[in-house]
Amino acid sequence: MALQKALFGETNFMLFAPGEYSVTPEDASAQLEVAAMTQHPIALLIEKADKAINEEDFDTVVALYCEDAVLVIKPGTNAVGKIEIRRAMEAIAAHFDRSLEVRQAGMVILETADTALVLAKTVVSAKNQPAVERKATYVFRKDLHDRWLCAIDNSYGHEVLGADA
Fold first, then answer.
1. In a domain, 6, yes or no
2. What is the pLDDT of residue 128?
3. Coil, strand or helix: which one is 135?
4. Are 149 and 65 spatial neighbours (Cβ–Cβ below 8 Å)?
5. What are the CA-CA distances from residue 120 to residues 38, 62, 72, 157 (Å)?
6. Residue 12 domain flag
7. Which of 142, 139, 143 is nearest to 116 (CA)?
8. Do residues 128 and 155 make contact, with C-beta atoms less than 8 angstroms apart?
9. Residue 73 is inside which H or E element, if any?
10. Per the structure, how many domains does the chain have?
11. Does residue 145 lie within any of the structural domains?
């Protein structure tokens, strides 16, 4: 306790040694329910998008984008607008033999009034392929109805910087 106060001052959390703290399944379930209720609306949209991509529900995926959205298909190749994004999603699914799995392993959302930057660890995997963690960058903006929509979907993050080299 003295070390905690020395390092962090008066805090509302405790430091525990490995094995010193355990959570029952009931506690964990309750914590997940609270987390879901307090999740940022954009995090929920990204979760919805990942689920729709994994299930190849491209109507749902495309509905989460702005009309003029940009999807980075791979560094140096973009799809612009909902029609191109849908075609790209269908081609990507076919390329991965309909086994693509996408999930987030963490994210930070930086928000202003009508724009949000999302920095995420996105994990992409497929049948007969190793899972790859990407440092993704997404930009969301609010539409006229105050709904968040994806304006830029760049799962490659800074990798796009080397695309023209």
1. no
2. 87
3. strand
4. yes
5. 18, 20, 15, 9
6. no
7. 139
8. no
9. strand 65-74
10. 1
11. yes
pLDDT at 36: 52
- pTM for the structure as a whole: 0.76
**Residue 107: count of CB within 10 angstroms of its CB:** 16
Q: How confident is the model at residue 48 (pLDDT cuts 50, 70, 90)?
A: very high
Report the helix count and the strand count for the chain, using DSSP H and E: 5, 6
User: Distance between alpha carbon 18 and the CA centroid of its chain, in Å?
Assistant: 29
* For range 25-36, the mean pLDDT: 56
| Structural domain boundaries, residue 158 | 23-162
Tell me the residue type at 139. V
pLDDT tier for residue 138 given thresholds of 50, 70 and 90:
very high
Q: Is residue 110 part of a domain?
A: yes
Average pLDDT, the chain: 85
Residue 162 carries which DSSP code? G
Q: Residue 117's domain is classified under what CATH number?
A: 3.10.450.50
Rounded distance, CA 66 to CA 75, Å? 21
Cα–Cα distance for residue pair 88/86, rounded to 1 Å: 5
CA angle in degrees (0–180, nearest 5) for 72-76-77: 50
Classified as helix, coil or strand, 28 is: helix
pLDDT at 37 exceeding the cut of 90: no
pLDDT tens digits along 53-71: 999 999 999 999 999 999 9
